[in-house]
User: Fold this.
Amino acid sequence: MSTHDILHRLSETLASRRNADPEKSYTAKLFSEGPDSILKKIGEECAELIMAAKDGKRLNIVWESTDVIYHVLVLLAFYGLSIEDVSQEMRRREGISGIDEKASRGVK
Assistant:
């Protein structure tokens, strides 16, 4: 089973929870609370990942990275996007210098 398969299955599962009962699904609860709640969770999980990395505890880094990825996927699903949208953008950027890619987006 590839990482690609796992992320795609998770992305599909999250999308399917859009109209689920928030009392029975953590993902549905996040959806029902809206983007601010999802963004808050991403911020919390990113802070926990930073602390795990500063501590250098490899297993904690894996756990917190998993939480960050999960919550980012929830955010994507909230906006009707999926891991496939991110994968397509990663493929587009492959082989392009990060400096050149950033410059191609123009000043914001």
In short: The helical segments are 3-16, 26-33, 35-55, 58-78, 83-93, 98-104.
